[in-house]
TrEMBL record:
Superkingdom, taxonomy of origin: Bacteria
Family: Belongs to the SMC family. SbcC subfamily.
Organism classification: Bacteria, Bacillati, Chloroflexota, Candidatus Thermofontia, Candidatus Thermofonsia Clade 1
Quaternary structure annotation from Swiss-Prot or TrEMBL: Heterodimer of SbcC and SbcD.
Protein name stated in the entry: Nuclease SbcCD subunit C
A GO term for molecular function: metal ion binding
Keyword field contains ATP-binding: yes
Family annotation (PANTHER family): ABC TRANSPORTER ABCH.3
Amino acid sequence: NEQTEREGKQLRSRLNVLEASETALCPVCHQPLSAERRAALIAEYAEQIEMLRQRYRETEQLSKAAEGQIEQLSERARALESDIKRQESALNQRLGTLQVKLKNAHLAAEQAAQLSAERAALQEQLASEAFAESARQTMSECERQAIALNYDQEWHDALRKELSDLQEGRLQADRLRQALENLPIAQQRMAEKEQQAAHKQARIAELEAQLPALDARIAELIELARQADQRRAERDQKRAIYDALNEERAALKNKLENLEGIRKRAQELTTQISELSEDEKLYQELQQAFGKRGVPAMLIEAAIPELETLTNELLARMTDGRMQLRFETQRSKKSGEGVIETLDILISDELGQRDYALYSGGESFRVNFALRVALSQFLARRAGAQLRTLVIDEGFGSQDAAGRERLVEAINAVQQCFDLILVVTHIEELRDAFPTHIEVRKMPNGGARLTVR
């Protein structure tokens, strides 16, 4: 559904562009569209968006079906796991019992073989009369000598010595006799061991006969375990798909909620736009009234004649009536169609009207000075006051010698218009240009001393 979401966003973006655009441009190729083509594209995008919504609903249904299948597979997998664990436990217990019995059977077989070998050795000794050989030879010699007995003391002593030696042979014979007496019991025990060994051997054969079936069962259980692992993997995979579908469903639900909020906000904004449209009309009227063609233009039109008169009066005093200026607030467009708002200063003298750049430095300075002083007088009158004092603070610092001379001439020319002209400067050579001086000097103690001359 990520692809569906991306496609939906793209289509919604294109549809918004088409609906919001006033120039009817294609959102893909950015080419102009006719009204019919624009309407067709809007309908096509709306249809595609509806198809995407249908795909989302189908995906949600598939998600629910997959959830049911996953639950069934999970139950089946849990049952298989329980059965496998139970059978594995029984098989492991049975296998341990068989291993113990098999070990005991091998030990019994080894003991039976050892007893059989001992019995064969004893039977061979009995058959060959190979026991107590020395004692038997001594007894034979005694019997032979007894027949031809011819008693002698030395012989008798020797015989007694030999008899003492034969005691050991008698003990061996007793032990042999005891062994012969115990032989049936040993043989019986041997037979019992052999019978037990045979029984165990038969049991081993029986167990070995059962091994193929057990191997088959183990293989079956291994296959069941593999199938259980496979189903578990399928369950995990479907669970992951289910979780992804749930996340996608939650995301789409959030988007739907956001869209609902946006729709409500759009309705509110539509209402606000309707209300603000009336305010906009009012503000447009105010903008026109207070724009450059409204009240400010009217004020400028009313102020320019007075400012022009004041400036020309000052210029007439500074130039003996040779120069004057005129303000022009409109001029024709270069195309010749209509006029544009402007504020041009046209300067003329006895030679006629010329461009500002064609006047000399002194003439340009007089025009600038007259215009600034006239503007100050005009603002003072509009404020309801009279401008009777002119203060020029450091007005000479940026001028050369010729410029300073022109400024002094301009001040002298307009001095009748003011009760007081105060010039502040640090240039020493200008002191003699004015009749009255106020000299300010700093004192060593931090104060200042004023001297009027």
